Amino acid sequence: MHRSDVLIIGAGPTGLVLALWLSRLGIRVRIIDKTSTPGTTSRALAVQARTLELYRQLDLADAVVKNGHRVAAANFWVKGEPVARLPLNRVGEGLTPYAFLEIYPQDEHERLLIDRLETFGITVERNTELLGFDETGDSITATLRLPDGQQETCQACYLAGCDGARSIVRKALDTGFPGGTYQQIFYVADVQASGPAFNGELHVDLDEADFLAVFPLAGEGRARLIGTVRDERAEHAETLRFEDVSSRAIGHMQVKIEQLNWFSTYRVHHRVANHFRTGRAFLLGDAAHVHSPAGGQGMNTGIGDAINLAWKLAAVLSGGAEARLLATYEAERIAFARKLVATTDRVFTFVTAEGRMADLLRTRLAPFLLPKMASFETSREFLFRTVSQITLNYRGMPLSTGVAGHVHGGDRLPWAHDGEGDNFESLKCPTWQVHVYGDTSDEMIAWCNEHHLPLHVFDWRPAFETAGLGRNGFYLLRPDTYVAIAETCSDPKVIERYFSHHGIRPFFGKS
């Protein structure tokens, strides 16, 4: 019987990233997908700064930035005229090495992940479908339908459902998926076109007519259009063609379509599963949560799920932690998913609301407020922090403790950069490690040496104070670069007690 450590169902970005991280940490994975080929359309587009930071651990960030498109600004249109421009080039400057909005279409993104996964000797098994599974003692027994129609029974220590909004895994677990569906019909079209909205920037129409956003892709004149379909046309969504939806907002924004590469219509859902884990089976990505495309959060959140779960599964499977560590996956990720759905719901409702008052808010109030907001550094920074996911934290969660400087246990470690370098270089290695900014004790140095726990001591510099880091204490960092302990003293017994309390024996992945 075929046996793996983790059986992954679904080879979208979430499943691929989970397979990559686990393989990087020496875990045997098997990844299947019922489709015959990878996606060929640019569904999700934005790769947020936090995702790029984490991608450094697999040497993926540079490839995404090199092959993607950096968006210089967002423009807002009313009545056929651009009324506000929000610069994005350096919107997150000083906060992250990736202080910009990166567009990298999902189909290209998946190909990159598949190529990297193959360097670990792992190939996605296509035309292979999960029929069902049972948990038996210390493993899961799953039944698969193979490409030739034959059935196979296989075993795995754990199963990960990364199989999308219609997840077979979620249905098998009988986990509720509460939420709803927005009434609007959306369309998405990849086009080659020209006009003022095809200058490599993001353009959004706020008019009374159909909502439309133009997302630039790499290459001159390439873009993705996302828009709504209103009035009687929405009643025939299944049979709509591009010609049926392309007249109103597209005309307002002076878009001249030269070639249509792809077109589809869909409805947007907002749902979060009641549980992200049942026994040895986990839900990640769209199988666990779906929400509006507002802010480009969906794919990035799924990738965040994968990285959060990967290091925990690797620790447990390698003997580096007790199985109870896995309970923290749901606690940490479900809270974020619920908050995200609520936030994107508010934005989505404002952008797509119908009626005279909604139109007035969008066409009169928004054009007045947007330039005002864009002129304030604090408002630009707040917007970037929120959308980029660098403020996502696990404060108050079981694995998070302490405060040092402005940094709490559970926070993403702040990025500090000056002429002498930055403090993120050591984070490329997905291991537990300790950071000290200033001085530390001989006891801390000796204890970390004895326990083979990497210790990085940085001479105190103004850049660290600016970033909010505390002086002469320490930060214990998890393998996913979030702060486990923020402490003002330099006593290694604090770390020892933490590991003992949580049943963790630090796991070190292959270098």
UniProtKB/TrEMBL annotation:
InterPro entries: FAD-bd (IPR002938), FAD/NAD-bd_sf (IPR036188), RIFMO-like (IPR050641). This is FAD-dependent monooxygenase. GO terms for molecular function: monooxygenase activity. It comes from Pseudomonas izuensis. PANTHER family: BINDING MONOOXYGENASE, PUTATIVE (JCVI)-RELATED, TRK SYSTEM POTASSIUM UPTAKE PROTEIN. Keywords: FAD, Flavoprotein, Monooxygenase, Oxidoreductase. Residues 4-343 form the FAD-binding domain. Its cofactor is FAD. It holds the Pfam family FAD_binding_3. It comes from the Bacteria.
